[in-house]
Amino acid sequence: MRTGQQIKTVAPKPTEIWRHRHILDIDDFSREEIEFVFQTTRAMKEVLSRPIKRVPALRGKTLITLFYEPSTRTRLSFELAAKNLGADAASLSAPASSVAKGESLVDTLSTLQALGADIVVMRHPQSGAPYIATKYMEASMVNAGDGWHAHPTQALLDIYTIQEHKGDLKGLKVVIVGDIMHSRVARSNIWGLTTMGVEVTLCCPPTLLPTGLGGEHSQLPPVKIEHDIERALDGADAVMALRLQLERQQSGLLPTIREYIQLYQLNQTRLARAKPDALVLHPGPVNEGVEIASAVAHGPQSVINEQVTNGVAVRMALLYILAGSPKQ
Ligand code: CP
Fold first, then answer.
1. What CATH number corresponds to the domain at position 12?
2. Protein residue closest via CA to atom 5 of ligand 1
3. Which of 154, 182, 242 to mutate to test the pocket of ligand 1 (most atoms within 8 A of CB)?
4. Which atom in ligand 1 lies closest to the alpha carbon of residue 76?
5. Torsion angle (degrees, nearest 10) of CA 223, 263, 246, 310
């Protein structure tokens, strides 16, 4: 193999740690599996640092992205990740496909299977849709966001970005502030961060807090809840602002956007309550001037663009691991 074509990885073989044929959420990922993804991501970052950012690890494999909702970061980074690994990548935007003529999800997936898909990356507005999809196809399914439920690859790139700056994650304080109820990113981050030993604090108006938190029937791992943003940010190592998902808001959850900004916007004064080297994250897309002040989004503590860059390497790592998975 010529120079520039190999992945310099000392990562263990997938079979030794990895148990997944699909990536549906990270609620069932072990700490060792997350570390394995990060170790493989570091190898992918080395590939991306080369003049020719390509390896043939997935040559002969076909990846199809199937998006029922808009996306910039997730869709493009999966397509770039697949191409960087030598796979054939094709994309389908559901609104511009035969879905618009009434084709069902199951028939669409059967069609992708018949076209030779090895991996399907799907975003769907219904929570649970990727789980149903796995019953109707042989290909590996990667959940690129399902309703309010999960966005596992986003959480992995978020946590990877924090680890890159902070090293050991255990004992760090990470605050997630914003529209948590409607956020699949928040749910997947809560699972991933707590698995890695992070202390997670949620901060939002009571009306934007998910139901099912706390108690023996909790649907999420234990987290702290602090509705006062100044108190929430005290001593934080990282803060993740979430987009106010106006398209998912029901009436009555917020008095006005102006009041939300007054009480919950991540601005410079509030950020000063966190540690001086605290990271500022946002999964994007950002409503600048609503959930986050422009000066903070573009300030020295912001790693928002690094999150996007890391998204390609993390997704390369996941595709590489999935392709090597013995259950494929
Ligand atoms: N964070 C995220 O999922 O962004 P996109 O909607 O642009 O993919």
1. 3.40.50.1370
2. 71
3. 154
4. 8
5. -60
